[in-house]
Write a structure and sequence with these properties.
There is one protein chain. The chain is α+β, with helices and mostly antiparallel strands and 472 residues long. It folds into four domains: 5-93, Uridine Diphospho-n-acetylenolpyruvylglucosamine Reductase, domain 2, CATH 3.30.43; 100-218, Uridine Diphospho-n-acetylenolpyruvylglucosamine Reductase, domain 3, CATH 3.30.465; 222-341, Alpha-Beta Plaits (2-Layer Sandwich), CATH 3.30.70; 346-421, Alpha-Beta Plaits. 36% of the residues lie in helices and 21% in strands. The protein has helices at residues 5-15, 24-31, 51-64, 118-127, 144-150, 157-160, 196-199, 235-247, 259-268, 297-310, 323-341, 358-372, 401-405, 408-421, 437-443, 446-459; strands at residues 20-21, 44-46, 68-71, 90-93, 100-104, 109-113, 130-131, 167-174, 179-182, 207-215, 217-218, 222-230, 251-258, 282-290, 314-319, 346-347, 350-352, 377-381, 388-394. The strands form five sheets. It has a five-stranded antiparallel β-sheet, sandwiched between helices. β18 (377-381) and β19 (388-394) form a beta hairpin. α1 (5-15) runs antiparallel to α3 (51-64) and α8 packs antiparallel against α10 (297-310). The radius of gyration is 23 Å and the shape is globular. The structure holds flavin-adenine dinucleotide. The site of flavin-adenine dinucleotide has 37 residues, from β3, α5 and β10.
């Protein structure tokens, strides 16, 4: 549905002609969605340059009842940033708002625009001998506004928490165009409801995040990385608890890699090889880090491996002797989703269960899907230190991709029933977007769902902020 000409001109005037995109070819990258699952249309794409411009856009849209889709780097994996098909929505893309407003190493905080690319925040923090620990494979293109809106996880959650744990203050443009300035850099603030947490993980359904005050941490001075081959799947949790106990909680990453995933990387990703001379079914990429110089981290790490060998939990390992070697081990882990794409269709489950149940979940779910969907190939990997498994299932070799993908919901049901039976979550880190609205409705406690809908109605009564995402 095309926008009324008066409104279109009004919106164009707010951002300037160059930052208002109506041409279908120029709009295409904003309509494309990472997994190719959604193909929407938009009335207009707007690229505001300031919070004030965002507020004026939202006011104009509120007055004309025009729905808005906030968009960051557009790397989300559940269709949250994709518009619907009826071309009624305006996409507000935050990419031009990419300034670091201030950095305060003394207070360990950084104040940023929402459109800052995550890798840029990490880099600037490092220049001040600090780290911003949020880290994920899309960090070169995802934006902090998108990270906050999805409460992104990534590889360092075990040590530093999710994005929610890394934010002190927020600036948000509300659905009626008012700006809420909650940019406080306080570690403690118990003055009523913690409003910032409403907008974190809301996937743009309650307002547009325009700025944030984030926590920084001292830069690690020592890091130790190894790829460990495990005796069996049960050894995963044994190694994790052993590592946490011995290291004084210096475990910064603990990632599961299955043999089938390693082989897919070796087949499709240039420069990856099997780092060990014999084959094993399961591997863990483990990293210790500390900001204490001369902490003896390396010897603690070696002690862990030694005792894990003695106990038979770890059967082989390669320890990185340089940053380059550590990077090449990480490359295997980070290339898994890309390698899987080359193997045809993949039905995905971004789930979590209590850490102690990870081995049972992987074993039971693999058995169930292979029994129900002949020839499918489970490739479970991910942040198992947080109980988060990317239970991705590659298609049978030679099967037509569309025929396989048509079984998405049926397979989701088998896996998600099992996850919920273990008191787990059907979306550990990617969110709900459009992909899991019905799935969440199926599993969520009705009281919880009712509270979510009431919150949405209270904050966005006209349902203009990313309608049809998260709650219906
Ligand atoms: C290779 C790859 C690896 C990934 N690894 C991980 C991982 O390890 N952990 C993880 O959690 N995710 C991961 N993701 C998913 C994705 O990168 C994250 O969800 C990321 O946080 C999305 O940021 P974005 O800027 O791209 O947001 P977008 O995709 O643009 O948007 C995501 C959602 O946030 C909303 N939104 C965006 N910006 C704003 C804003 N300023 N205000 C309000 N709402 C907004 C959108 O409307 C949408 O609902 C991965 C993705 C890829 C492609």
């Amino acid at each position: 549905m095309p926008l009324d000409h008066i409104l279109q001109n009004q919106l164009r005037d707010i951002v300037g002609a160059k930052a208002a995109i109506a041409d279908p070819a120029e709009m295409a990258p904003y309509l494309h969605e990472e997994r190719g699952l959604y193909h929407g249309k938009a009335a207009l794409v707007l690229r505001p340059g300031s919070t004030e411009e965002v507020a004026r856009i939202v006011s104009a849209c509120a007055a004309s009842k025009t729905p808005i889709v906030p968009q960051g780097g557009n790397t989300g994996l559940c269709g949250g940033a994709a518009p619907h098909k009826d071309a009624s929505e305006v996409i507000v893309s935050l990419g031009r708002m990419n300034k670091v407003r201030a950095i305060d190493p003394m207070n360990f905080t950084i104040t940023v625009d929402a459109g800052c690319v995550l890798a840029d925040i990490q880099r600037i923090a490092l220049e001040h001998d600090c780290i911003f620990p949020l880290s994920l494979a899309a960090e070169g293109s995802c934006q902090i506004g998108g990270n906050l809106a999805t409460n992104a996880g990534g590889i360092n959650v075990l040590r530093y928490g999710n994005t929610r744990d890394l934010v002190l203050g927020l600036e948000v443009v509300l659905a009626d165009g008012r700006m809420w300035n909650g940019m406080r850099a306080l570690g403690k603030d118990n003055t009523g409801y913690a409003l910032r947490h409403l907008f974190v993980g809301a996937e743009g359904t309650l307002g547009i995040i325009t700025g944030a005050v984030l926590k920084l941490f001292p830069r690690p001075k020592e890091t130790a990385t190894a790829l460990c081959a495990l005796r069996d799947l049960d050894s995963v949790t044994q190694l994790l608890s052993h590592a946490r106990a011995i290291s004084g909680d210096c475990v910064s990453a603990f990632e599961l890699i299955p043999r089938i995933g390693l082989e897919m990387c070796n087949r499709h990703i240039a420069g990856t090889t099997d780092p060990l001379s014999t084959k094993h079914d399961w591997y863990v990429l483990i990293e210790f880090s500390t900001s204490r110089p001369d902490s003896g981290l390396r010897s603690t790490f070696e002690k862990l491996l030694e005792t894990a060998f003695e106990a038979g939990i770890v059967t082989d390992a390669v320890v990185a002797e340089s940053m380059e070697q550590a990077k090449s081990l990480w490359r295997i882990r980070e290339s898994l989703p890309e390698a899987q794409k080359h193997e045809g269709g993949s039905i995905k489950h971004d789930v979590s269960v209590p850490v102690s149940l990870v081995p049972k979940f992987i074993a039971d779910a693999s058995k169930a899907v292979t029994a129900n969907f002949a020839g499918c190939r489970p490739v479970p990997f991910g942040h198992v230190g947080d109980g988060n498994v990317h239970f991705n299932v590659s298609q049978p070799i030679g099967m037509d991709k569309a025929t396989y993908i048509a079984q998405w919901e049926a397979m989701n049901r088998v896996v998600h029933d099992m996850v919920v039976g273990m008191n787990g979550s059907i979306s550990a880190e990617h969110g709900i977007g459009m992909l899991k609205v019905d799935e969440m409705k199926h599993y969520k406690d009705p009281v919880e769902l009712d509270l979510m809908r009431k919150l949405k109605r209270a904050i966005d009564p006209a349902n203009l902020m990313n309608p049809g995402k998260v709650v219906d």
